[in-house]
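Pasting as-is:
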Amino acid sequence: MTFGSSGNRRGLALGVKRGFKRATRVDAPPPAAPGERILDGIPGFLVWVSLILVSVGAVYAPIPVVTVGALIGAYMAVRMLMAATANLMGLRRIRQWERTDWRAEYERRKTAHSLAWEQVRHVIIIPNYKEELSVLRGTLTRLAASPLARNQIIVALAMEAGDPNAASTAATLRAEFENQFLSILPTLHPKGIAGEVAGKSSNVAWSARHVAKTLVDEMGISLDQTVVTVGDADSILHVHYLECLNCLFAVSPKRHMAIWQAPIRYNGNVWDVHPSLAIVQAYSAAWELAYMSGSWWQALPMSTYSLGMRLAADVGFWDANVIAEDWHMFIKCYFGRQGLLEFAPIYLPFSACSVTGDTFLESCRNRYTQTLRHAWGAKEIGYTIKRMVEKPIPLHRALRVLLRVSHDNLMAGAGWVIMTVGTQLPLVLNPKLFSERFFAPEFLLIQMSLLMVITVGILFYLIDLKMRPPRPRAVTLVDIGMTLSSFVILGFLVLILVALPVIEAQTRLMLGVPLEYKVARKV
């Protein structure tokens, strides 16, 4: 629901709440159906089965266990090499896309069936809950810098009723930016609606429905000419992203059969983050660019993405009972379009912020919480299988998405257990193996894989350094020392900040223990 109206098209929707329905308060999401619980429990079940088998095998069959772990390690090393190749391809495309004049590109590509450049309307949904005003102000400032802002961009401030400062924050931002956009439409998502999971997806679902209604009923704008971009409160779009999207959406005959995504760079506060966490984020960003750039992989949206409002309306908008809203919405649209939905890369990186804290330990704790939330995406394995049963599509199309969703979650859980515990525990319990079989095939494979992973990891870090904004202060010996020490403890950090929260999330799903959505601190 939008709240209030200033009486003109540009100032719609702020002031007095209207038509607000009382919502039922719930403290937890509704329990999953038995079949859904079984599907959700698959990743966690495999994690613990793997841990038990590896532990028993380390005692009674150490060589086979090490061999299996080495094979998985080699597989991951090859994937790292493929990711490095895709990263270099992606960097080249970024340079090309940044040099492109997108208005001229539109003129070159347009046909009789294209939308006029000025016809396209952009809805930017910015979900937020107790975000710092400075963060939201920075996001809107970048949006206002777009040449499209004044006549084509509609900003939807997706506020939460649980935030006591929601109305004042929206009023402040509207007062500052109302003349810089076509319209600013704050929406207020009620707290505690039965059946919802508190978080980004439920907020976006509420906002998108009410904004779509406002577009049609009050502004006379067709959903067929509207593209919606969903981001996080700290997502800073590339200065040319919306122009590029405007071009691609206007000229595409399949504009309502695609989801557009730009690569993410954690540059918003990179010089304020501990080097150890910055390295972990660099690794994450490298994989996202690799998935986008490598045609041999099925890419999925991450954090900030765009799609036609007609597509969103056709599939019933976002679901309000999920946490991993980006993957979930892609899967929902994918099956809603019979497996013909396209993932369309936009090689114009957007900037996001890394989690922070007052101390290194607090930063690690916040990073753990964020990874735990991201790892809830394991639930999408069950959702994909459910959609395959409910709405059958050609098997090869369904498997393409299922394998991607399953692969990432299973490799991060059960795969990690087999690869790390399976190659280390047998050596701890059987120390002689190291000296007796150092040159055996399985141990040589481990060494080669480790060397490849380290080499590619350094490449990822160097790429991240190259793409960072200028350092605000001169580098010091302390900075150098902290960075070098970060590489030494990187394996431990991956265990604490990546592997353990993934295992916890998958175990929670297996046991039916809900996860509370928490906003990560980034300032």
